[in-house]
Specification:
The complex is a heterodimer of chains A (534) and B (309). With 534 residues, chain A is of the alpha/beta class. Chain A is 38% helix and 25% strand. Chain A contains 23 helices and 20 strands. In chain A, helix 8 packs parallel to helix 9. Chain B has a single domain, classed as MetI-like (MetI-like fold). In chain B, helix 2 (34-51) crosses helix 4 (87-123) and helix 9 packs antiparallel against helix 12 (278-302). The chains are: A alpha/beta (534), B mainly alpha (309).
């Protein structure tokens, strides 16, 4: 695939600093990066490792609040650091392109897709409009978008997230750049969509012999895409090697820890004592928009039920029904054997206390203006009337339970890492002393190691306090790690429901099969094999 | 295994240096542009006039001297007006009355508009509809004319009541704009998971308003407060100029502009006398400009669009 001799990008000893809290902090501490024509380099690391910053530096660009303080960036024989802004701008969008994580946020909602796809060609005067448009349609076809002739004439909100991400790739490819930087392009997509997008992106990059830097925290994804993998941590390089060698024989302890497939395995068990029973639930957001159809779910006490499905399958709506935010149109919810009032406002304090919720984005689940002590302290005083010393003692107990210490009490959410934030949310739920915790994609925004820490914590808490979980997720690996029972949802209906071992072993209904086979595996041949199978 | 060298407390996170409120403010002020400094100094000057008017002013607010239309002199810096009152003293007392009443009015309008805006944003149902439509109707009527109408329609007997009437009418009319803004910015916060979490916890409306939403929408509200204050201040001055605002003998700049503007006719004969009306007028303009400078800087600070370092 790659020719060794043809060096496209050569970054030496890059140092980047970021400004915060009235000081400059190092973000990248002297990293080398080189890339040949037509080669794909995977850049991997936890959040905060500096991978996006390094990726942008490959364009000679530093985000606002960041500055490149040292090193040399040679792109195709030109030193990007010494180039003036207008000259760099000439390169950007024509010879170097960037594909961002959230396609939805990166498109202008007021313009048609095709106009945005060819915009770079027109601005740089590379191609006349007619030619550029025909070329864009060719690219749509190469990216396997449905109806390539017409899809460009839609607006961003009229296509799905996966399609939008592919259009964005087409936009990046439109000028036939020498280098594309992909910054977590599939992180926001469902697994079933992710496969299509990955495949399309890999094919087109190969077809035009474009070099790429692929930034991600998902190891299985990078294994499919990259020729070489570079691992970053704390702004420094940990290790770099060819993909196959890296997967089979990682050298550093940190890399090994990333590579070790999730070690948690829960022995499944069940019970006839149900903490929560949903019977024949129908729910709708308006008269025309029916989201749940005859949903029956039972949650055994002290066990974990994983609700699996892609976005739009109704799994989050199910959570809203249970919490009382969306009263169902028909059907009943029973909690601890007693019927639970459908609407939130009809529930008493105890009923509210017994069901707690943990959210996917810990960032938005905590008030940015409240300290950890206020966030965790509120349920203590609200449900348990704790004040003063008693509250403080309980607070420090809770912090210990989530493996943090008292020094965190006066921090604001912005002063916590992603994993710590999620732990604080768990502590807030625990503070209420609930019977049931609904976990809505609680680990999907976190790095591998951190995810594992959170899942272990949840399992230990379950063992100790007998809490039941409803675990909403689309990540099969998480399901395997934590659940006793699995519910698979598709388009508002329960497709399959049962013990973990039953659901995960064949034969599967069609949808379950599709879902399970779409989960990327560490094997670098996985994507090719999958294509061959389908 | 992977969890061996992992500790939750050891995860990388950036803890800000603990600084006192004063220190943080000083850091902000150090970076303030000249216009903001200018604005702040002017506002400070007005505040001093407001608070210490009886001590600064050489004469009383409504003290009448023997000679009307007196020349500028040692005793009467800016001369006396048609009744023989010291213009310089009335200017200083005017700061207290005009600015003070405008401030009270703005506070009241934020209390009404902000409160209703928050309720509407959280409620999002029929209540939101009712309040929003009423506000639409009020906004559709030109506010100065509406204010004139209401002020003329409501009878008051004492000067105190007439000031209270003025404050309430202007505050209610102005609160419609505050309502719009508060509702709009609060809507962005209401959809956050932490507000849903508070609701699921069973929190009452008041808590959600005060503790969950209000702290997160403060910056735009504070900026709007500055702007609304300017407009209220101008409205009151305009009403006083028309004779419906603050009633004499209470000194205020709008009334002073009206009274002194008759001297404009003498511009050909006595320049100082003819331009007297521009002094209270200038005081009004200067404060408005100063407040806007500060608001601009504040908005720039909090908008998060700062590229420079």
């Amino acid at each position: 695939m790659s020719t060794k001799s043809d060096l496209l990008l050569d970054m030496r000893n890059i140092e980047i600093e970021g400004f915060s809290d009235e000081r400059w902090h190092p973000i990248i501490k002297g990293v080398d990066l080189s890339l040949n024509r037509g080669e794909i380099l995977g850049l991997i690391g936890e959040s905060g490792a500096g991978k996006s910053t390094l990726g942008l530096a490959a364009m000679g660009f530093a985000r606002p609040g960041c500055r490149i303080t040292g090193g040399q960036i040679m792109f195709d024989g030109r030193d990007l650091r010494s180039l003036k802004e207008p000259e760099k701008r000439k390169l950007w969008g024509s010879r170097i392109a960037y594909v961002a994580q959230s396609a939805a946020a990166s498109f202008n909602p007021a313009h048609r897709l095709i106009d945005q796809t060819i915009e770079a060609n027109l601005i740089k005067g590379l191609k006349p409009a007619k030619e550029a448009r025909d070329d864009a349609i060719e690219l749509y076809r190469a990216l396997q978008l449905p109806d390539p002739e017409k899809i460009g004439f839609r607006y961003p909100h009229q296509v799905s997230g996966g399609q939008l991400q592919r259009v964005m790739t087409a936009m990046a490819m439109a000028t036939r750049p020498d280098l594309i930087i992909f910054d977590e392009p599939t992180t926001a997509l469902d697994v079933t969509t992710q496969v299509e997008v990955l495949l399309a992106m890999r094919n087109i990059v190969e077809q035009f012999h474009t070099a790429a830097i692929y930034i991600t925290h998902d190891l299985a994804v990078v294994a499919q895409m990259a020729d070489r993998i570079k691992v970053l941590r704390y702004g420094e390089q940990v290790e770099e090697a060819e993909t196959r060698r890296m997967l089979s024989d990682p050298q550093e302890a940190y890399t090994k820890s990333l590579w070790s497939v999730r070690s948690i395995q829960k022995e499944e068990s069940t019970s006839d004592d149900y903490v929560l029973e949903l019977e024949g639930i129908d729910a709708a957001y308006s008269r025309s928009l029916k989201v749940l159809k005859d949903v029956n779910i039972k949650v055994p006490r002290g066990r974990t039920v994983a609700v699996v499905g892609e976005s739009g399958s109704g799994k989050s709506t199910t959570a809203r029904v249970i919490t009382g935010l969306l009263p169902p149109s028909t059907g009943s919810v029973r909690f601890n054997g007693q019927p639970l009032p459908a609407a939130l406002k009809d529930r008493n304090l105890d009923q509210l206390r017994e069901i707690q919720m943990i959210y996917q984005m810990a960032d938005t689940a905590m008030n940015p203006r409240q300290t950890v002590a206020e966030i965790i302290g509120r349920p203590l005083e609200f449900y348990h009337n704790m004040t003063g010393r008693k509250k403080e003692a309980r607070l420090s107990e809770l912090l210990k339970m989530i493996e943090l210490d008292d020094s965190f009490a006066d921090r604001l959410p912005s002063e916590l890492s992603g994993g710590q934030k999620q732990r604080i949310c768990i502590a807030r739920a625990l503070a209420a002393e609930p019977d049931l915790i609904i976990c809505d994609e609680v680990t999907s925004a976190l790095d591998q190691i951190v995810q594992e820490g959170i899942l272990n914590l949840l399992l230990n808490l379950q063992k100790e306090f007998g809490i039941s979980y409803i675990f909403i997720t689309h990540d099969i690996a998480t399901v395997k790690a934590i659940s006793d029972e699995i519910v698979i949802m598709f388009q508002g209906e329960v497709v399959e429901q049962g013990l973990k071992s039953e659901i995960l072993s064949p034969p599967h209904p069609d949808y379950t099969q599709l879902l399970l086979s779409s989960v990327p595996e560490m094997d670098p041949d996985w994507l090719d094999n999958l294509v061959a199978d389908r | 295994m992977s969890t061996e060298n992992y500790s939750a407390a050891g995860e990388v996170s950036q803890v800000r240096t603990r600084r006192t409120w004063l220190h943080r403010m000083w850091i902000g002020l150090r970076k303030a542009p000249l216009t903001a400094w200018f604005g702040m100094i002017i506002i400070l000057g007005y505040l001093i006039c407001m608070l210490f008017a009886p001590w600064i002013a050489p004469h009383g607010e409504a003290q009448v001297f023997a000679i009307p239309y007196a020349e500028w002199s040692e005793t009467h810096r800016l001369g006396t007006d048609q009744l023989g009152r010291d213009i310089f003293s009335r200017l200083i007392f005017g700061a207290r009355n005009t600015v003070g009443i405008a401030l009270l009015t703005t506070l009241l309008s934020f209390f009404i508009g902000g409160g209703l805006g928050l309720i509407a944003a959280i409620n999002r149902s029929w209540l939101d509809q009712i309040i929003s439509r009423v506000v639409d109707v009020l906004l559709a009527i030109p506010s100065l004319i509406f204010a004139l109408m209401l002020l003329a329609a409501v009878e008051t007997t004492t000067p105190t009541w007439s000031i209270i009437k003025l404050i309430i009418i202007i505050a209610v009319l102005d609160s419609t704009r505050v309502f719009r803004l508060t509702r709009a910015v609060a809507l962005n916060v209401v959809v956050m998971d932490y507000v849903e979490a508070a609701r699921l916890r069973g929190e009452k409306l008041g808590w959600i308003m005060r503790r969950e939403i209000l702290p997160n929408i403060m910056p735009p509200l504070v900026a709007e407060f500055g702007l609304r204050f300017s407009f209220v201040f101008l409205t009151i001055a305009a009403l006083s100029f028309l004779g419906l605002g603050i009633q004499p003998p209470t000194a205020d700049w709008g009334t002073m502009v009206r009274e002194l503007s008759t001297f404009v006719n003498y511009l050909n004969f006595d320049l100082r006398l003819g331009l007297l009306a521009f002094i209270p007028g200038g005081a009004i303009a200067l404060l408005t400009v100063a407040v806007n400078f500060v608001v601009d800087w504040f908005l720039h600070q909090t908008s998060g669009l700062r590229d420079e370092h």
